[in-house]
Amino acid sequence: MSLTPTKEGTPPVARDTATGGSASRTKRSDSKFPTKTPTPLTTRQRLSRFVDRHVLGIYVAPAVAFISLVMIFPVVFTLFLSFTEWFGSARTPPKFVGIDNFVQLFQDERFLLATGRTILLTAGAVTAQTIIGVGLAVLLHRQFVLRGLVRSIVLLPMIATPVAIALIWRLMFHPQLGILNDILTRIGFAPSDWLADPNLALLLVGVVDTWEWAPLIALITLAGLAALPEDPFEAASIDGANGWQKFWHVTLPMVRPIVVVAVVFRLIESLKTFDVIFVMTQGGPGFQTETLNIYAYNVAFQYQRLGYSAALLIVFFLLVLLISSSMMKLRRPKEK
Amino acid sequence: MRRFTVRIDSKPIAIDRTEKRMHRRKFTRGGLVATAVILTVSIFTGCAATGDASGEEVATGSFDWKRFDGEEIRFVAGLQPWQAAVEPLIPQFEQKTGIKVNMESLPEDQFRQRLQVELTAGSDDIDVFMSSVQQDGARFAQSGWYEDLKPYIENKSLTAPDYDFGDFSESVVNGHTFDGVLSALPIQLEVQMLYYRKDLLAKAGFDAPPATLDELREMAAAMTDPADGVYGWAARGKSAAAVTQLTSFLLNYGATYMTEDGKAAFDSKKGIAAIEEYGSLIRDYGPSGNTNNSWEELLALFQAGSLALWADNSGQAVAVRDAASSKYADQVGFAPMPAGPAGDAQTFFGWAAGISSSSAQKDASWLFLQWLTSPDVVGQLQDQGIAGGRQSVPFGTDVNPEFVTAFQSALSKAQPQLPQVKSVPEVRDAIGAAIVTSIQGGDAAAATKKAAEAFDQIVSTE
Questions:
Q1: Binding-face residues of B in 40-59 toward A, CB within 8 A
Q2: Residue ranges making up the domain that contains A7
Q3: Contact list, B301 vs chain A (CB under 8 Å)
Q4: Number of structural domains chain A divides into
Q5: By percentage, how much of chain A surpasses pLDDT 70?
Q6: Predicted local confidence at residue B431, as pLDDT
Q7: Which of B390, B274, B396 is nearest to B339 (CA)?
Q8: pLDDT tens for each residue of A27-80
Q9: Spatial CA neighbour of A271 closest among A213, A324, A218
């Protein structure tokens, strides 16, 4: 193992090297154990010895305590709540109901439709974002006049506050007061109901999400492009590859790992989209744009059914985990 | 050989370490158990501590406003026209009683969340709070968050002789009573009301607002002119928000939300007809995009002059007559909701105030709540056009007389706008879905049946 002799005092406790460590090292550390000196120790010595022996534990303790408090406890508590029925009143403590909540979830039409919508919205929006984002990155990677300025402008939607963006889009989509219908009617088209149109609402949410987040994929991809070596491109040129071939067979395979990371980021975020939907439609018209996150919010904070909403979130969490971990597999290039 | 010794030697250490690890693990598990125990205990002790608070001594002797001189109570309210008007009056109460009132006002959403968190925790910090009884009342009552006000009102030592409780109408008092517990008293009442544009009505040749739904349809048709940007009719189309506005239609078609024993009843033939009528009026004569319209959007459209007739709660009355935000302000008229084929029912929605069952100063809190709902304070508020729950207290002379007539005639026969179940928000969403389908021109009957099934399912699991 990599431990150096100077650290010899600490490793036996701190690391699991006892069985795996090299024979010589273990032997040396043994010889240092103070069994041969039975003289009483001062408090200070004891303390410092204690610290020496548990140094890793002591360094790690605050972080562990913090994580347990803000992450593990809520997760465990959510898991506990998901098996109960609770309205959040201290006078009527959670009532244990076993797996009732989960059984009910899979018979709940609103939940199933919301799951479908969440997957549809995520798949659509992230695909569009990836294509537009990578396209933008390749464009912005070239040298041209005012490149810095154009880059900043393209990245603007991502930097603005999501709630503010959603409010502005809602205003623009407004059937009577919005600018989009004004433009449509001026150029001779029939006005649209936009977000109030049940067939259009989810699509428009996806469009706004894409508009907002394609720049993120562009930004990350751009960083990946900048780090690419020149040689493969020269080699491709010498072999007579044209621009498209260079892009498809050289650029894309090389930036792929970076793009996949960006896509996973977006995927997780997109599954959880809340602000844009909540501000633009609040899940409406009817339930046409109600995704899992919006439904969970309604169940917990409008209906006060904390147990049911905890069960919903557990299922949602597993869904996010499944999708993002299977995406990460794509990051590794195919082995041949 | 060498390897062998090493293994022997290393073993004790390994065991030592595993033991330590086990020890540590046990400790963590112990920690978790301890945390859980502490949590549970605190939940139960919180329960016990608040549970027996009602065992305090009952006040005796003659009524005296100064009885609790020097006490301090906390009042939590949402930002509302009522709250804005009452805040400057509170020093009158403090002078009268010597009780210090700490008032806290938050925007409605934050207010509701804050209230829920504090009441959930069983904290005795809150003494008096504002509450929307139709929306939250049953759930709050089930959670035991309201103190029963009846004993206080009946106690002559705690209630002033001139309080006149009988002035609250019986239907209003019933609307605030859950399982025999009078949970709160009304502070701000709204009725559903018809706002109309006199100039547009006159232009179309009508001299009075519609008195029946048939007349309403006729007038709406005559005034609708999308090319000119004018729509004859509007009411909320956004699912859950629309439910309070649908109620008068249901009642006037002879239907109700539920039967006496709590089963959905709005999917009757009459109920479906009412939901179809509500939807088709909006679809035919309302502004496009109406399924996303709640009162905020419709108020903006009305102020912009796009709506000829608009039904919504009377809280909008001040805004539609506000010349600063609308150039049609002086053309706005007020009328009660038109009658339907089966009657002329009106509906109300209200804000109330109650005393927290966890409060440590319930008697002083009652003096404050009593003062808030007293003829004197309600009178001062009605002078400003803010309607309290008292029948005999007149509006101020500055308040628009048409509004006063419409309001009073509606209130005299008003019924609650929401079904009295515990899961009101959830039930609203279910009924709202049927309204949206009806507005969109879908199969309203099927959607209503589905909503009724959802209603029964929700209510059965309460």
A1: 40, 43-44, 46-47, 50-51
A2: 1-53
A3: 176-177
A4: 2
A5: 86
A6: 96
A7: B274
A8: 454 555 555 556 777 888 888 888 888 888 888 889 989 988 888 999 999 999
A9: A324
Shared-domain flag, residues A171 and A263: yes
What are the chain A neighbours of B47 within 8 Å (beta carbons)?
Answer: 90-91, 93
Q: Do B44 and A93 touch (CB under 8 A)?
A: yes
C-alpha B381/C-alpha B89 separation (Å) is: 9
Strand, coil or helix: B131: strand
Pair A46, A189 in one domain: no
- What confidence tier does B455 reach under pLDDT thresholds 50, 70, 90? very high
Cα separation, A274 vs A290, whole angstroms: 10
* Best CA proximity match to B328, nearest among B299, B295, B302, B310: B302
Name the phi and psi angles at B358, rounded to 5.
Answer: -95, 0
- Residue B423 has φ and ψ, to the nearest 5°, of -90, 60
Helix (H) or strand (E) holding B456: helix B444-460
Residue A95 located in a structural domain:
no
Could you tell me if A200 and A318 lie in one domain? yes
State ipTM: 0.72
Alpha helices in B224-267 (DSSP H): 239-252
* Total residues found in chain A within this entry: 336
* Domain of residue A292, CATH code: 1.10.3720.10
Q: Which of residues 124-183 of B touch A (CB under 8 A)?
A: 139, 142-145
Other CB atoms within 10 A of residue B269 CB: 11
Domains of chain B, start order: 65-189+349-402 (3.40.190.10), 192-348+407-460 (3.40.190.10)
Same domain, A125 and A193: yes
Peptide bond connecting A285 to the previous residue in cis, omega within 30 degrees of 0: yes
Q: Is A26's CB within 8 Å of B17's CB?
A: no
Looking at the structure, tell me whether residues A113 and A46 fall in a common domain. no
Kindly list the residues from chain B whose CB atom is less than 8 angstroms away from the CB atom of residue A193: 288-289
Identify whether A79 is part of a domain: no
Q: Please report how many Cα atoms fall inside a 13 Å half-sphere around the Cα of residue A51, on the Cβ side.
A: 6
- Which of A176, A278, A312 has the most B C-beta neighbours within 10 Å, making it the best mutation to test the interface with B? A176
Residues in A closer than 8 angstroms to B433, CB to CB, are 286-287
Alpha-carbon gap, residue B274 to A19, rounded angstroms: 79
